[in-house]
Amino acid sequence: MQLTAPAKRTTDTAGKTGTTRSTRRTGIHDTDGMAVASFVLGLLGLLVLNVFLGPVAIALAGVALWRGTARRGRALLGLGLGVADLLVLVAFMSADNTMSWSL
Predict the structure, then answer these.
(1) What is the pTM of this model?
(2) For 9-17, what is the mean pLDDT?
């Protein structure tokens, strides 16, 4: 996955070559990847490492939604699963009366 396009060598109006113009591509494909990653990490966080994967899934989903992803449903599912990760963590922590949980 390429986040930025390579710099292109252009010719200016006087005929001189050597000026570089870099274009930045933060297109829809980047946000689609963030939406899918938030969904996968949120789903995985229900099983393991929910204290880390939950907030990461929430952050990725938020950025994908903010940038206007085409996979809005997938980003919303990632956001919901990230919140569910943290709720599962709180439920297990309150059941064990400790700051961590284990199976």
Answers:
(1) 0.68
(2) 55
